[in-house]
Amino acid sequence: MSERAEDIRIKELEDQGIELYSISKLDAINNCLYDAYLTYRLNNRGGNNIYALMGSKLHDVLEGMANGTAKKEDLLPAMEAELEDMDMLGIKFPSDKIRDGWVKDITHFCKTFDFPKNLDFTTEQLFIYKTDDGHYIRGYIDLIDNLGGNQINIFDHKSSSMYSSKDMDEHARQLIVYMLGKEQEGIKVKQVAWHFMKYVNVLFYDKGKEKHKIVERRKIAEEMGKYVEQALLADGYDDIDINMIMMKFKNTNDFNDLPEETRSQFIMQPCIVYYDVDNEAIQECKKYIKDTIEKWESLKGKDISAYSPRKFYKIQKNGKTAPDVFICLSLCGHNKDCPYIRDYLEAHPLPKKEEEI
């Protein structure tokens, strides 16, 4: 069942004039104060980006599937209809190449994903976490698996690329705040995890040993080809048959096009990446919240000139700088009207190669 509806707890806090925060709001403050000023001081949300809109549509259908109001077969038509609407509105991916890759990954997800049966799920559940110094963080948890005995697992659906190891701790703050909020209610959180839709976890045997491999969905045949060939050989197929089977597999990217005895050796599972929340991670998250809120509140009453934009470059390992404008150009709702990114690009035109990334 879903809980995303107006909640009396939110209204009571707002009636008291208490400013409510979320992890996305805190991240916006740290990423670009100018964007945060427009969004949260002036209540100007700006435009929408393709990733947020497509992700929201997928979340809606997944919520319905978990609640029994939608079925697996609804995913692909919903995704295709939303893509068509985005095309009509002129809301685009950064490049055609990125669009094609994302669509292939998510199309495979829509055709193959389903929720496990006979589990007790809650979707879009509100949490409110009160910090040690009296501030409030609120949000909605995508999916809760109710384990019984006052224990839960928390999952966050992601239609983005998987996080790199160096970025994982930063993104994990959202999961940690979910956990803190629910444990403040007296609920024990056993595990927290991301569900990355663009990827699949493949279980298989290699030389008699059970293995698993996380693979981007559109690259299943490319990444798993050598293991499939080994399995076909072990199953007694000759070179000619193997070549024909592999040609079809590489063309369709579908394990179902393998012979049954071979196909059964490769099991696809959703890509669930668990995050181990230790005390160090909790303390870092609490400090991040405290420091960010202090920075934000120190700017109250100041004019727009006090809200500086993000830096448009990053420092590489060799000490040189490189453009870092993906967030501005692809994710920020104010990029069409932002004088800072306009001036930066006029002074530092992106090479064609950069624009295609």
Task: Outline the structure in words.
With 357 residues, the chain is of the alpha+beta class. Among the domains are: 206-269, no CATH class; 309-356, no CATH class. Helix content is 47%, strand content 21%. The strands form 2 sheets. Strands 1, 2, 3, 4, 5, 6 and 7 form a 7-stranded mixed β-sheet that branches. It has a two-stranded antiparallel sheet with strand order 8-9. A hairpin with a 5-residue loop joins strand 2 and strand 3 (136-148). The model has no long low-confidence stretch (mean pLDDT 93).
- Tally of individual helices: 14
Amount of beta strand: 15-25%
Mean pLDDT over the full residue set: 93
Shape: globular
Name the features.
9 strands; 7-stranded mixed sheet; 357 residues; two-stranded antiparallel ribbon; alpha+beta; 21% strand; 14 helices; 47% helix
Brief account:
The chain is of the alpha+beta class and 357 residues long.
Chain-wise SSE layout:
Blueprint: H1 8-15, E1 20-21, H2 23-31, H3 33-41, H4 50-67, H5 75-89, H6 96-112, E2 121-130, E3 136-148, E4 151-158, H7 165-184, E5 188-206, E6 209-216, H8 220-234, H9 239-252, H10 260-263, E7 267-275, H11 279-297, E8 313-315, E9 321-323, H12 326-331, H13 339-347, H14 352-356
Parallel strand pairs: 1-3, 4-5
Antiparallel strand pairs: 2-3, 3-4, 5-6, 5-7, 8-9
Helix pairs in contact: 2-3, 2-11, 4-5, 8-9
